[in-house]
Amino acid sequence: MYDYLKGRLIEKNPTFVVIDVNGVGYSVNISLTTFSAIKDQEQIQLYTHLLVREDMHQLFGFSDKNERSLFVNLLTVSGVGANTARLILSSLSTEEVYSAIIHEDVKRLQSVKGVGGKTAQRMILDLKDKLPKAGITVEKVNRHHNTIREEALSGLLILGFNKLSAEKALDKILDKGLVVDVESLIKEALKTL
Q1: N or C: which end of the chain has fewer CB within 10 A?
Q2: Which homologous superfamily does the CATH classification assign to the domain defined by 65-133?
Q3: Which residues of the chain fall short of a pLDDT of 50?
């Protein structure tokens, strides 16, 4: 019903915000990812999803369309409700959830409180083929002049790994097309070195 809301930020909490749109205050549920993205902006725009149930209407807001699309797809999985989907998107970035589903990383999904093994497997089974078709795109990383890559390479060299081997491992991970933080990149590289 509502694609996005754009207005003045009145109140900001880790789980919801109040946005004044031309004199109407909308209470919008958000994830911690969106909470971090908003920072202290006075004027904000959130992409929204209205969840209608018999006993309530809930409005959810997201800092970008990929997060909203992933939320909507998570709701299609049996056993994943709005609160669980929001918790998943609060615990992991959009890129991390996407990567975990595409690469069938059950442990990564189980790291979210409230997501058990069966739910994680169901998410992978239901969404692995759906997510690429849903138009969810994750930011691709340019290998060259990439600070995340350089920091990870520096860390691997400090750990005593050969520079050429470390570069090959990092490039292989980055070629998968997913942005990861330095810590995750080093962990993935350690698995292959």
Answers
A1: N
A2: 5' to 3' exonuclease, C-terminal subdomain (1.10.150.20)
A3: 140-145
